[in-house]
Amino acid sequence: QPEQRWVPVEDEPPKEKKHYWICTDSGYQCECRWTNNIYGLGASDNWGWSIFDIPQYSKVVAWMPLLTPYKGGEEE
Predict the structure, then answer these.
(1) Whole-angstrom Cα distance, residue 23 to residue 74?
(2) CA distance 66 to 36
(3) What is the pTM assigned to this prediction?
């Protein structure tokens, strides 16, 4: 299980292309993708948060790894 703590984006952006739990400058929280295919036009050298997953004009200020999905009471 990854450590559940908020990581300020300015201190350390994610290292892997996948989904994370994010918080925006307005306090909005949701699952969001960190990707190099931000506009759906194919991979590029520019990395960022998927604009399709967050409200328009929001700035992601912190992120954390997602929790492990529930598996019907199975212990790991």
Answers:
(1) 29
(2) 19
(3) 0.74
